[in-house]
Amino acid sequence: MKTLLLARHAKSDWGMAGLRDHDRPLNARGGRDAPAMAQRLRDEGVGLQRIVSSTAIRARRTAEEYAAAFELAVAEEPALYAASARTILGIAGALPDDVEVAMLVGHNPGMADAVAELTGSFVEFPTCAVAECAVDVDSWSELIEGSGTLRRLRTPRA
Question: Whole-structure pTM over 0.90, yes or no?
Answer without folding.
Answer: yes
